Model the fold of this input.
Amino acid sequence: PFYGAYVDIIERVQANFLRVAAFKLGVDFADYHRTDILNRLNLLTLEKRRQLLDMTFIFDLIAGKTDSIQLLSRIKLNASNHNLRSRKLFHVGFHRTNYGLNSPVDRALRMLNDLDNSIDIFSVSLASFKFKLLNCL
Done:
């Protein structure tokens, strides 16, 4: 979901799981914040996990590991003749609705554009791409 109210509902499911996991591990949940327990269990928040999987999906599309001509045709590179201030790698089109704006492909392309230029999506392996993404998120 892309509305904060719905994201909070789903995050509560993870919080309930963390409470049960902390109880099973003998950790007093009241003493720790949710992010401390996430770090202790080597888990990502659901939002970061979704972002990682979205960007990994785009990586797989570009690398040819996922075969979908329709989805691949939606990925457009910025190749401007002019020296512009914008150094965005991907072109994300305009959408009139939130549904179109937050479609999975466009959402992932916007996230990849917002990353710093230290991640070269075209010349790294999947493992190093995920590692660099985890360091950026």
